[in-house]
């Protein structure tokens, strides 16, 4: 075989590049068809413009290959500037990154097949076709890297933009403002909410910092089985996440199930949440009231990890959770001294009082609960009555003491009742 002069080889390479350029539209259409047939997220996508978007992306990449071949130089990052726009489109079309890269590989295979087909039709271009492999590999290497980077950047941009939109919308709803801007109304619809929706609001705090926010968002966005999947609007404000969820069945049960699943998922990742859930309300104008309920339910956990629907609280527990300063000032000074002294000691009298109340004012039953002799329980109850001036045979007096204990028990370092 006689070696061709370098100028002849360059001319043949340019000729091959021209053939590639001449068939770009046809080959790009074929690549788009294969991608939309072979990749599930493309095949099942509802966007009617997806196929043409894919063909346009293929044309851009194939043009880059033809240009590199004609110029005898590897493609640069600048040659793939348009790829970022296509990556953004794929993110908005719900195409996963793995499928996006699979589509890129399919397009390159189709391009290589077209080069071989040109070589078969023009035998004098076979050597140029063989040499063109290095340029195809350059396109694959540079193009796939830039495509992945562009996709991730687009994804982060859209996530950040969505987070800002959700936070702004939640701020408006908490302030009692009705969303009138089209984009915010669209965000509501995406969350499954309308102005007259039946809603439940959740408030959650995490004892973890740093990277836990993304994990929390993922867990709240994928709450287990399809029948418990929780739609809704979720935003973070000053370390607190606030969720506004549709309650289409008129109950908070579905939301509670979803958030409990998220709680369990996060606990397995050592992220502890305290989540309060409101009662059901009608209309987005009720968000401020529902939010206050959710915070009250969360505070009933005393910052212990868990999920607490407000419906689980008794009226008594609800009132005590409010910890009103005026209520504290109304506590009898004698009762205050007793409670504060016992809290500073070992709580033995308070524990006995609470066991006595739970045993329906039965001292013997309380003694069994405390694993002490009956006479010990009677002695402690007598001491409580003596020090407070209360008659522990009267329910009102016992209730008064229990309220004082709840109101005066300080919260621990994490905000929890000690």
Automatic annotation (TrEMBL):
Pfam families, per the entry: GGDEF_2, HTH_30, RsbRD_N
Taxonomic source organism: Rhodococcus pseudokoreensis
Family: Belongs to the CdaR family.
Domain of life: Bacteria
Record's signal peptide: none
PucR C-terminal helix-turn-helix domain span: 350-406
CdaR GGDEF-like domain mapped to chain residues: 187-299
InterPro entries linked to this entry: CdaR-like_regulators, CdaR_GGDEF, PucR_C-HTH_dom, PucR_C-HTH_sf, RsbRD_N_dom
Protein name in the entry: Helix-turn-helix domain-containing protein
Span of domain RsbT co-antagonist protein RsbRD N-terminal: 26-164
